[in-house]
Amino acid sequence: SAVISQKPSRDICQRGTSLTIQCQVDSQVTMMFWYRQQPGQSLTLIATANQGSEATYESGFVIDKFPISRPNLTFSTLTVSNMSPEDSSIYLCSVQRTGIYEQYFGPGTRLTVT
Amino acid sequence: AQRVTQPEKLLSVFKGAPVELKCNYSYSGSPELFWYVQYSRQRLQLLLRHISRESIKGFTADLNKGETSFHLKKPFAQEEDSAMYYCALGDDKIIFGKGTRLHILP
């Protein structure tokens, strides 16, 4: 298994500002992902955070809006840029080990944009 | 294209009654399938995977390749089973279904 922490756990932000969410894992993992979970909705994959290279974004998500960093195998950040109320959601970090399809999830960051 | 379908958004079941959460998938090859669960105010966690063929918290799921299904079952529902359940398919990344909220009625 893997222990994952996220910071902040929640935040209330004004529209037009940006928020950076941190994800820390207690051991080295190959694959890290960022998801969004809007109220009452399922998980939507935003991107795969690749160590040492640009993140791989899913359809509908772009780097300018959701820049991601992955400086090493235990840490990643997701920035939600130029926020609007539609960005209000829970943002989840998850990790997966190579060849093993089980994912471990962080506790999530609850973002409210006013 | 790979896809996971959970047809029910909400399933209400009386305590003690059998539970079946439906999941169908679309995948060309031998899939790896999972059920994840999210209890209230807790993080999403793996419930079971088809490869291990185990029973967790009384839940089982059988892979039916002919019907491309991986339904989650429990013979007698308990109140603590109330949660959000996600069926998932493993590829180079995991593909999640939209989830079914299970509500156990007293």
Short précis:
The complex is a heterodimer of chains A (114) and B (106). Chain A has strands spanning 4-7, 10-13, 19-25, 31-37, 43-49, 56-57, 68-72, 75-80, 89-96, 103-105, 109-113.
Structure description:
- The complex is a heterodimer of chains A (114) and B (106).
- With 114 residues, chain A is mainly β.
- Chain A is built from no helices and 11 strands.
- In chain A, strands 2, 4, 5, 6, 9, 10 and 11 form a 7-stranded mixed β-sheet that branches. Chain A has a 4-stranded antiparallel β-sheet with strand order 1-3-8-7, with no helix packed on it.
- In chain A, β5 and β6 form a beta hairpin.
- The radius of gyration of chain A is 13 Å and the shape is globular.
- The termini of chain A are far apart.
- Chain B is mainly beta and 106 residues long.
- Helix content of chain B is 0%, strand content 45%.
- Chain B has no helices and 11 strands.
- Chain B is globular.
- The N and C termini of chain B lie far apart (40 Å).
- The mean pLDDT of chain B is 91.
- The chains are: A mainly beta (114), B mainly beta (106).
- At the A-B interface, β5, β9 and β10 of A face β6 of B.
List the helices and strands and how they pair.
The complex is a heterodimer of chains A (114) and B (106).
Chain A: E1 4-7, E2 10-13, E3 19-25, E4 31-37, E5 43-49, E6 56-57, E7 68-72, E8 75-80, E9 89-96, E10 103-105, E11 109-113
Parallel strand pairs in A: 2-11
Antiparallel strand pairs in A: 1-3, 3-8, 4-5, 4-9, 5-6, 7-8, 9-10, 9-11
Chain B: E1 3-5, E2 10-14, E3 19-21, E4 24-26, E5 32-38, E6 45-49, E7 60-61, E8 72-74, E9 83-90, E10 94-96, E11 100-105
What string gives the helices and strands of chain A in order?
Answer: EEEEEEEEEEE
Number of helices of chain A: 0
**Cα radius of gyration of chain B in angstroms:** 13 Å
Would you count the extended β strands of chain A for me?
11
In the predicted model, the low-confidence regions of chain B spanning at least 5 consecutive residues are none
| SSE-based structural type of chain A | mainly beta
- Assign a percent range to the helix content of chain A: under 10%
Q: Total strand count of chain B, please?
A: 11
**What class would the helix/strand composition of chain B place it in?**
mainly beta
Name the poorly predicted regions of chain A: none
What is the beta-strand fraction of chain A? Answer: over 45%
